[in-house]
Write a structure and sequence with these properties.
By secondary structure, the chain is of the alpha+beta class. It has helices spanning 23-32, 38-57, 69-88, 111-120, 125-136, 144-154, 216-228, 238-241, 244-258, 267-280; strands at 11-15, 18-21, 92-93, 102-103, 168-169, 173-174, 187-188, 192-194, 199-203, 232-236.
């Protein structure tokens, strides 16, 4: 349901009395969706009570961690909208039930376009969340795992992220001047790139990645070219990022290469990081 005035250019006319919601407006509606929170609050109270009983049974004096379920739900909805924005502004589409993820699909919007539409809309919860999601999301993601890692590394610590500088995803780097000497091509496009720091990250997987062109072999050639040109290239595999410990180690390594100091999360942010990792990791997600 949408009770406010429709933003300009939010829908396509596809027939008599038939409008198709555009991608930006779809995200705005998704971001504004609400649900009953009674069950969420009851589950939170039960979880805190259970943890307190467990600590008491173990004879521990530690207090049970109590993150506000309303705060987490607010942040979770913004992150979920950012995930959808990465998909629409990227080159993959999650499948309908029974379908696999499709790759090498043209983007249907940009994060900047989403932010512009949210800014022009009436001031509503949906527009506010969509605007935040647009600033957190990335253009150019090529797979659900790239989206997950980009958000995990770049989201603020209070959201459960690492607060690393934002990378650019799959942005071509001109290496034509080295063709024939250090390169066999005119450009390379690392999965994640911090151009100012000359740091790159490659995610090595055929499960959620492009099929055909982006194989392990071409990933290795691309990484070798960048390394020869003075870039520091890190590699990630499904095995290293499926566990939160693996992601945290990779995050510390990237922070060292980027010359930044990671903010140490408190116990609530540590809890949110576990939740965020579980929320973002692709598990053959379907629409």
């Amino acid at each position: 349901m949408w009770s406010a005035e429709l933003p300009a250019n939010s829908c396509f006319i596809v027939g008599d009395d038939v409008l198709l919601s555009g991608p930006e407006f779809t995200i705005m509606q998704f971001a504004g969706a609400t649900a009953r929170l009674d069950g969420l609050l009851d589950a939170h109270a039960a979880a805190v009570a259970a943890e307190a009983r467990m600590l008491a049974d173990l004879g521990l004096e530690d207090h049970a961690m109590a993150d506000s379920p309303l705060v987490w739900e607010h942040e979770r909805r913004i992150v979920a909208a950012a995930v959808l924005a990465c998909e629409f502004a990227g080159s993959y589409r999650l499948g309908m039930p029974g379908e696999s993820t499709r790759y090498r699909i043209s983007p249907i919007m940009s994060c900047n376009g989403l932010e512009l539409m949210a800014a022009k809309a009436e001031r509503t919860t949906a527009a506010s969340r969509a605007s935040k999601a647009a600033r957190l999301a990335f253009d150019g993601s090529a797979s659900p795992m790239e989206t997950a890692l980009a958000l995990l590394f770049a989201l603020p610590v209070e959201y459960g992220g690492f607060g690393l500088p934002r990378p650019v995803l799959n942005k071509p780097v001109d290496v034509s001047g080295y063709r024939g000497a250090l390169s066999d091509r005119d450009q390379v496009s690392p999965d994640f790139l911090w151009p100012e720091k000359r740091v790159a990250l490659e995610y090595d997987s055929g499960e959620f990645h492009f099929q055909g062109e982006k194989t392990a072999g071409t990933d290795a050639v691309r990484a070798n070219i960048l390394t020869a040109l003075g870039y520091r290239v890190f590699r990630a595999t499904p095995q290293t990022v499926r566990s939160l410990a693996g992601v945290e180690l990779l995050g510390r390594q990237l922070a060292c290469a980027l010359g930044v100091v990671l903010e140490i999360p408190d116990e609530i942010c540590t809890l949110r990081r576990r939740r965020l990792h579980a929320e973002l990791m692709p598990c053959r997600r379907e629409r």
